[in-house]
Amino acid sequence: MKIAIISDIHGNEEAYNKVMEDIEQFNPNKIFCLGDIILAGYNPNYICKKIIELKDKMKDDFQIIQGNTDKMVSNCTDELIKKTKETFPCMGYSLEEDLKITKKEYINFVKNLPENKYIEINGLKIQLVHGSPRSQNENIYPELTDKTVCEMTNNSSADLILCGHTHIPCGYSLSNGKTVINAGSIGRSMTKDKMPVYLQLTIDKNGKFFVEHKIVKYDNIKVSKHILSRGFKHCEDLAGMFLNE
Ligand SMILES: [Fe+2]
Which pairing describes strands 2-6 and 30-33: parallel, antiparallel, or unpaired? Predict the structure, then answer.
């Protein structure tokens, strides 16, 4: 059983298409998406359309949960925009603009996604979460202590927890017996080279698994220019995040 896990696409058409080409080569039985399909990209409608098409085509073999930015956009208030503009200006202005360009049917789609899911494959219990099992907004970063990540995951009954949110890939084999893998991000990767990352998971008939992060090369400079061309206040800060350090 082969599964591709994608996360944090953030309306990035270029990255999504390149990753899907790579996933086609991997030829998985299932695809899981860990949320944040919209906000702070340049084509949220394209991504929502593609995700819904994939869900219709793959049926139960495609599973998706909601990310924190999906929730932000679909539950947005003037107060949230104001607050986000104060704390993270480019994200606040992006939120305001994305609300104007994202189709209502797509905002509704992300609004109704579940926050987490349990899936059992060959006896292996998997939980899909966006941040951590205890919070959609919690960061499972690299180099946390075993104790910290155990506290974040103790309320999960899964053997394998798949998360995203931080846009930085990492993994933990914990003393509580669980494995936690952060899939990284397709559309707003925060690795040094800003290249999209997804997960390739293989599970054998006894539930033993092997997991690998896959990095895909793409034209991040082109995407940075697309973001810049949106022209809203502080979008240059957002565009800069797509360029290599
Ligand atoms: Fe995200």
Answer: parallel
